[in-house]
Amino acid sequence: MNRITACFERLKKENKTALIPYITAGDSNPTLTVPLMHRMVDAGADIIELGIPFSDPMADGPTIQLACERALKHQVSLRDVMKMTREFRQQDAITPIVYMGYMNPVEAMGYENFAKLGAEAGVDGLLTVDMPPEESEDLRQALKPHDIDPIFLLSPTTQPQRIKKIAAAGSGFLYYVSLKGVTGSNVLDVDDVAKHVQQIRNVSDLPIGVGFGIKTADAAAAVAKVSDAVVVGSVIVKIIENNIDDAESIMDDVGDLLTGMRTAMDS
Predict the structure, then answer these.
(1) How many domains, in total, are found in the chain?
(2) Are 16 and 227 in contact (CB under 8 A)?
(3) Element (H, E) at 209
(4) Where does residue 116 rank: exposed (0-12), middle (13-18), buried (19+ CB within 10 A)?
(5) Predicted model pTM
(6) Catalytic residues
(7) Which CATH number belongs to the domain containing residue 215 in this structure?
């Protein structure tokens, strides 16, 4: 059993929903990433989604696009992200880490090499936005011996038959995109989310995480009632953007945000 499965099983026993914050590795500078990961865990994060900086993040809105640009100014590569993961694991051997990104860096490294080095670093899951499950067989076969979960996205327009295909290809959890559009969008209809999450539950036993558009403690609490995980990204990255040269304020503000969400989700 890998860390992701163990995490969801523990939370199910505790009747809790996972809180999954996202940051782009290397934003606003590489020295901030690992301390911020630890702060997020202290504030109530159950799983960390760590973005691999990429020059063309097509599923992401302006906030995360700018985060990738800031990280790439420091030439943060996939190997650097793995180095950060190893450093994080020196103090935390429990919290699952999911890499979120695009196929180009993984393709360049090679599937087998990525899986081997990723497992050695301590990564638990890989979410690649632009890898459809129909084309993922070679990647999944490389990840499986190293117990790294391939995680796939579902959207409001995903049809039931395709949900079955995606669920069969994935493991760890399924990521439901709560709205049509890119990360950081503003409209969140929790009733609509609940309807689609139930459709997914009808065909899969995998935990379901919901992301895109969750910015407040109230929104996190509302989504937590209908899902197994709440994924929070752009609002955290915006804090980094607004405090670009002030690491202490970033740490405090992100910590306060997640503490508020965790409290609201658990109440």
Answers:
(1) 1
(2) no
(3) strand 208-211
(4) middle
(5) 0.95
(6) 49, 60
(7) 3.20.20.70
